[in-house]
Specification:
It comes from Funneliformis geosporum. The chain is built from 5 helices and 5 strands. By secondary structure, it is of the alpha+beta class. It is globular and about 65 Å long. The protein has a domain of 103 residues. α2 crosses α3. It has a 5-stranded antiparallel β-sheet, sandwiched between helices. A hairpin with a 6-residue loop joins β4 and β5.
Length: 162
């Protein structure tokens, strides 16, 4: 006979990070976009929003290495030196974004004007190009709505992806 263990019972009721993220957004977990239906992604976003103030925003990016390796010149978009992931990261940070945990995927903004300026002033080479892989698989804006941690997300399709 198996010994009674209260931790096993509690674990069955413990929510996953994805479930917690969906709850903070106010949707069912499977209603989240596929790029947010990942435990590591959900954990990162939940951790980052704890560092954000109400009305702060963030950019979450899932990079595509293919977008930087479209020619024989490795890690350079269009084969041009300087057109790489580091240049985009430097652009975001230079526009007021803070590279959360130095993971190069989550960038926090303390000023909504800065994130708007950043969003609409990316270098032209980062834009979607017909026949060339995009520089990222997905990108979205995360907004912290309340002190209790309520958040929302919105597609950030401009300019990286179609």
């Amino acid at each position: 006979m198996e010994k009674w263990n209260p931790k096993r019972i509690i674990q069955k009721f413990k929510k996953t990070k994805m479930e917690k993220l969906a709850e903070k957004i106010g949707v069912e977990p499977l209603a989240l976009p596929t790029y947010l239906q990942n435990e590591d992604t959900a954990a990162l976003i939940l951790k980052a929003t704890k560092q954000m103030n109400v009305d702060d925003s963030a950019i979450f990016i899932q990079w595509s290495n293919a977008g930087f390796n479209d020619t024989a010149v490795a890690n350079c978009r269009n084969g041009v030196a300087g057109q790489n992931q580091t240049a985009i990261i430097n652009y975001i940070v230079g526009s007021g974004g803070s590279n959360f945990n130095d993971l190069n995927t989550m960038f926090l903004f303390r000023n909504n004007f800065a994130i708007a300026r950043c969003q609409y002033s990316f270098p032209l080479w980062t834009y979607h190009q017909e026949g060339v892989p995009d520089v990222c698989h997905s990108i979205c804006r995360i907004n912290k709505l309340s002190a209790s941690g309520r958040i929302n997300y919105e597609p950030f399709d401009y300019p990286f992806v179609v």
